[in-house]
Amino acid sequence: METQPESASGAATPEPSPQQRWHEQRERIRILAEPLGLNGPGIVPPEDEPAEVNNRFGAWSDELKPFGNFDFWISEQICVESVNIQNLRRHEFVLRHAQVHRARTGWEIDRAFDAAELAAELADQPEMVSLRLRMSAHGAALMIGRWEALAAILRIHGRWDEAQRALALDLLGVPQALRQGPTRLDPKDGREAAEVILEVIAAEVAELSRLKAEELDAQDARERAAAELGFGSVLGPELRAVRRQLSACQRRLEWYKRALNKGGRLVLPEPKPDRNDRLGLNPVIPVAVPDPAAGSTPLGAGWPPVRDEVADKDPVNLEARRPRAVGNRLGAG
User: How far apart are alpha carbons 233 and 136 in whole angstroms?
Assistant: First the structure.
């Protein structure tokens, strides 16, 4: 037998009511949601999803109007997908909020990491990667740092080893198949190799510094401002996955909405009125309804008269049936 929890005075503490538990849970959700940029009331925790689906099913039945067992199942699926869409929307907002916070606090280190990650492929695709590094401020800064480090090694030791020479050719974007021929690093006109290489390095650093100062720094500032406002173009894998799930839920919801009430009723579109209907020119022919109390009714009584094709072709009849002006028919002329 379960015992009631006791308070400090020894008296049994009463169990909280369902309403008290609901308010406590709402407050707990609000506290957890606040650091994520959410206000809490619209969040449905996983443990509350079945109850929320049942609540929506009861609240939406008047609008959904399920006809039979299949419609009841369809209505339940609509409620399930509505909860999923609501949670996925908030999940998307949380991820975008995290991206905005990261852009405001860790933009520099994140972009430096992206440049370093790209530079790791420099040896495999030097021509392509070297150009891509020149397209961002942090990529250009990385290349300037590599060139300055290679220049310092050359000044100290007077020469490079094979790995350092290969790195310099990678930074210049020279493909592997063309490195057996002449390159910009080869000595020429009887000058020392170190002197030619330092001249090439100085030209590359000057060009990268100019490009960074005149174009790339402003581009980086615009991208950071857009990211801090939530308009960044960089989508992480988790955000892409959430948006794929959201699109799938919306497609299922649309299918359920189309399938609802198909078995219970057939809604036919109303016929479009023709020109004579809009102008009031089509006469309404009264049809007599037989009265069962009056006895039998001759076959065809009350039917519209059969048109005489010969009379229809008579010019006099044609003139009589010609539509007149609308004002005349309404008694205006």
Answer: 14
> Does pTM surpass 0.85?
no
Can you tell me the distance from the alpha carbon of 146 to that of 152, in angstroms, rounded to the nearest whole number?
Answer: 10
β-bridge mates for residue 6, sequence order: 12
Q: How many CA atoms lie within 13 A of 50 on its CB side?
A: 1
Q: What are 321's two structure tokens?
A: 């049936």
Each of the 333 residues of the chain gets a pLDDT tens digit; together they read 445 555 455 555 667 776 666 556 556 655 555 555 555 556 677 777 888 898 889 899 888 888 888 889 999 999 999 999 988 988 888 888 888 888 889 999 999 999 999 999 999 999 999 999 999 999 999 999 999 999 999 999 989 999 999 999 999 999 998 888 888 888 887 788 889 999 999 999 999 999 999 999 999 999 999 988 888 766 778 888 999 999 999 999 999 988 886 655 534 445 455 555 555 554 444 434 444 455 544 444 444 444 444 444 455 444 444 444 433 433 444
In angstroms, rounded to a whole number, what is the distance separating the alpha carbons of residues 287 and 304?
7
Amino acid at 72: F
∠ CA 169-135-203 to the nearest 5 degrees? 45
- Tell me how far apart the alpha carbons of residues 161 and 144 are, in angstroms, rounded to a whole number: 20
| Residue 92 C-beta-side C-alpha neighbours within 13 Å | 16
The runs of H, that is alpha helices, within the chain are: 18-33, 49-64, 69-119, 126-133, 137-157, 162-172, 193-211, 217-228, 237-259, 275-279, 309-312, 315-321, 326-329
Cα separation, 49 vs 84, whole angstroms: 9
Place of tokens 């590599």: 146
Question: How many Cβ atoms are within 10 Å of 135's Cβ, its own excluded?
Answer: 13
Counting runs of H as helices and runs of E as strands, what totals does the chain give? 13, 0
Within a 10 A sphere around the Cβ of 225, how many other Cβ atoms?
A: 12
